[in-house]
Design a protein that fits this description.
Layout: E1 2-6, H1 10-22, E2 26-30, H2 36-43, E3 47-51, H3 59-68, E4 75-79, H4 85-90, E5 95-98, H5 103-112, H6 119-124
Parallel strand pairs: 1-2, 1-3, 3-4, 4-5
Length: 125
């Protein structure tokens, strides 16, 4: 699975990358949401994990950018803010991951929201 992780916390980006790559996924990271449309088009992620609070573009901004581009890629919002899940889903998020989270919660949240590609899709790629 190709996963794009967007978060301004470099330590969290590195930790997520290690866990996801160890689980066999291909990971790309962004430390801000400014170039998200460009990265989605180039990397073609199966899912995006995005922080809700970032200094240069919020999770809501990232979701808006992704949805306006016509992409229906699943987006899981992560945040330490309580009571944000409904707001994130109203903004177009597929799922929500409450911070802090462990490795198992991270993997489960992502796998829960991605439909595995069909055999035909895997051959075409």
């Amino acid at each position: 699975m190709r996963i794009l992780v967007i978060n301004d916390e470099i330590d969290l980006l590195e930790a997520c990358s290690l866990v996801l790559e160890d689980a066999g996924h291909e990971v790309e990271t962004l430390s801000e949401g400014r170039r998200v449309r460009e990265r989605v088009e180039a990397f073609r992620p199966d899912i995006i994990l995005v922080d809700w609070v970032m200094p240069n573009g919020s999770g809501a901004d990232v979701l808006r950018e992704i949805r306006q581009s016509g992409s229906n890629v699943p987006v899981v919002v992560m945040s330490a803010l309580s009571g944000l899940e409904r707001r994130a889903k109203d903004a177009g998020a597929t799922g929500f991951l409450q911070k802090p989270f462990g490795n198992v919660e991270l993997l489960s949240a992502l796998e829960r929201h991605v439909i595995p590609p069909s055999a035909e899709d895997r051959v075409a790629n």
